Amino acid sequence: MRREETKRMTITAVFVAVLLMQTFMSNIGYVRIIPTLPAVTTIPLTVAIYAVLMGPKAGFLFGLFWGITRLFVAYTQPGDMVSLMLFQNPAISLVPSILAGFFPGLIAKQFKKTKYDKYGYVLSGAVTSLTNTVMVILLTSLFFMHDPATLVHYLGNDAANSPLILILVTALGVNGLIEAIFTAIVVPVIVTPLNLVMKRA
């Protein structure tokens, strides 16, 4: 029992270190393609792998940790005005991150009971990124619904008559789609050998 706990703590420490490196080293966790828009993030990949390996409860807590680092960065070193406006809101920082950690662990846990566990890895990866993107868009549209003008301006869209949620989907959806495809492809590639190593440990 103690050996299993030690193994889980060690794995968690490694993933925490990776997430911190992605957060605070430039162009590793947040890859900025368009300077004025939020960066494409590789952190959902780390979150998805951890959650698939460790389960939904651990994924929930790891997602919370990601959300806290996201909130911290928004206050200390925001890379663009949109990130500052969005992620200084604790709900927008924390809720998508937490759910993005919980859902892949839950999906992988269900697929482990079947012979299609590899498909579970792919789905978990895609769901991690899509959950993050969709929840950020939904919460942003909710919190900025009464005063969208400034946010819309910084998103580079002055079409005042367009619904805010449509503008957000246009501006942030491409990032989310790229992240989802990337994460869905890479998660099974990494998780499959890691699972074998963990079973032997």
- Looking at the structure, what is the overall shape? globular
How much is the radius of gyration in Å?
Answer: 17 Å
Order of helices and strands: HEEHHHHHHH
> Could you give the order of strands across the largest sheet?
1-2
Give the class from helix and strand content and strand pairing. Answer: mainly alpha
Instruction: Please report the total strand number as a whole number.
Output: 2
Number of helical stretches of at least 4 residues? 8
Please mark out the parts with pLDDT under 50 across 5 or more consecutive residues, or reply none. none
Ends apart, CA distance between termini? 13 Å
Mean of all residue-level pLDDT scores? 86
- Helical content band: over 70%
Relative strand content: under 5%
Major sheet size, sense and barrel closure: 2 strands, antiparallel
Commentary on this structure:
This protein is mostly helical and 201 residues long. It has 8 helices and 2 strands, in the order H-E-E-H-H-H-H-H-H-H. Strands 1-2 form a two-stranded antiparallel ribbon. Strand 1 and strand 2 form a beta hairpin. Helix 5 runs antiparallel to helix 6 (117-143) and helix 6 packs antiparallel against helix 8 (164-200). It is globular and about 55 Å long. The two termini are 13 Å apart. 40% of the residues are buried. The mean pLDDT is 86.
